[in-house]
Amino acid sequence: MAENSSCCTPEGSCHSGGTDVQVGAVTTTTYRVTGMTCGHCEGAVTAEIGEIAGVSSVQAVAATGLVTVTSKAPLDEEAVRAAVDEAGYELVGQAA
Fold it and tell me: How far is CA 56 from CA 2, 17, 82, 91, in A?
């Protein structure tokens, strides 16, 4: 019987924690943002973060306060914080 060559841990995790997931040349990071209450809020946050160089997609969900950002490389959290601030909301940090 061959040894399991999966990248997953015995616990079933495919990465070692955190919210940064790299697939090839793509990074997906989830942030927690406070103050979003509706679709307009989601759109404002999405638009501002979407202007950061290298960002390919943004999904903001007001109900959970989570914003998932896909980019070509890891983003500088201060750039994300500035974009969220510009939209009128507060970046708490990366979601756990």
Answer: 39, 23, 18, 19
